[in-house]
Amino acid sequence: MKTIKEELSAVSYPGRGIIIGMTPDGKNAVMAYFIMGRSENSRNRIFAEEGKGIRTEAFDPDKLEDPSLIIYSPVRVLDTTTIVTNGDQTDTIYDHLKEGKTFEEALYTREFEPDAPNYTPRISGIITKEDEGFSYKLSILKSANGDPSSCERFIYGYKTPVAGKGHFIHTYMRDGDPLPSFEGEPVELIIPEDIDEFTNNCWDSLNEDNKVSLFTRFIDIQTCEVQTRIINKNR
């Protein structure tokens, strides 16, 4: 396993990323979601609390250009289930779960983003409260090596999380033109026990020029009480 600093510092432009795991003491489920941006439109964003989740907003509404792929609810909560994604598929998953359907069924109705030539992958995660603990899943929907005629769907399930361990998935392998999609399985990361250490490790390891916003949350496995941190570069 790698530390958060080792992994995030080694990737020049991971784009948007999700980390889910468990604290070393086994008491908390852990979640992080960050966004980065290269264009003025992408950088003109902040995270704002919305109910039990968060929403992206324009920092300067006068500079907002195309909101279609940058304004959405990355995090929503349904009962004791927490959903995190990099797009409006959050709502798709939420609606399917509310109807008694599954995470997988929801994602089979969606594809990667229509932002040629990048065809940005849609990444998603879910934390589900179980009787004696929790489970989580991660997913990525991406084009077949840049071919928009084919959508490849990968879903990773973690039924019995390991204390002190998490998994990280992100949209891009590195900077480029077009941006190359993430490859391989989610990266295993070492999860610290303190939410502020976790938050600072994530934020400080992201590229200073391109990082935009970060959301982190610890969820008490027994009580479902949460601790949340939000950092916005635009203040």
User: Spatial order of the strands in the main sheet?
Assistant: 11-10-1-2-12-13
Q: Could you report the average pLDDT, rounded to the nearest whole number?
A: 96
CATH topology: Glutamine Phosphoribosylpyrophosphate, subunit 1, domain 1
Per DSSP, the total helix count is 5
Q: Which range best describes the helical content: under 10%, 10-25%, 25-40%, 40-55%, 55-70% or over 70%?
A: 10-25%
Sheet with the most strands, sense and barrel status: 6 strands, antiparallel
Topology:
Elements: H1 4-10, E1 17-22, E2 28-36, H2 40-43, E3 45-50, E4 53-58, E5 75-78, E6 81-85, H3 89-98, H4 103-107, E7 122-129, E8 134-144, E9 147-158, E10 165-170, E11 187-190, H5 195-205, E12 211-220, E13 226-232
Antiparallel strand pairs: 1-2, 1-10, 2-12, 3-4, 5-6, 6-7, 7-8, 8-9, 10-11, 12-13
Helix pairs in contact: 1-5
Keywords:
Glutamine Phosphoribosylpyrophosphate, subunit 1, domain 1, 235 residues, six-stranded antiparallel beta sheet, five-stranded antiparallel beta sheet, 13 strands, single chain, alpha+beta
Structural summary, described in words:
The chain has 235 residues and is α+β, with helices and mostly antiparallel strands. It has one domain: Glutamine Phosphoribosylpyrophosphate, subunit 1, domain 1 (4-Layer Sandwich). The chain is 16% helix and 40% strand. It has five helices and 13 strands. The protein has helices spanning 4-10, 40-43, 89-98, 103-107, 195-205; strands at 17-22, 28-36, 45-50, 53-58, 75-78, 81-85, 122-129, 134-144, 147-158, 165-170, 187-190, 211-220, 226-232. The strands form three sheets. It has a six-stranded antiparallel sheet with strand order 11-10-1-2-12-13, covered by helices on one side. A hairpin with a 5-residue loop joins strand 12 and strand 13. Helix 1 runs parallel beside helix 5 (195-205). It starts with a helix and ends with a strand. 43% of the residues are buried. The mean pLDDT is 96.
